[in-house]
Predict the structure.
Amino acid sequence: MSSIILILLGVLEIFAGAIVYFHYFPIFVVFLWFGAIYIVKGIWSVVSSVAVGNFFDWMGAIDFLVGLTMISIFYGNIFWFFWIIGLAHLLKGTYTIILSI
């Protein structure tokens, strides 16, 4: 059951990475909602990793960056390095799917 959840999370991460990479989605409010969800997810991941003694949680850090990026896109601030963050999140989603298989 957990591998199905990981696959769904991986697909969601690939979707989020793609909309950050291309800076576009027809329903624009998605950036705000996904941004808020990914900021909370990133903070939760980093805090829980630090609590168990793992001080290098790259997956949580990428989630947090994607959340900030999506909220920034929602408010009209698009920077040149956003495609790198989107690509990193696409690769993270692919990594999650590969690990769950």
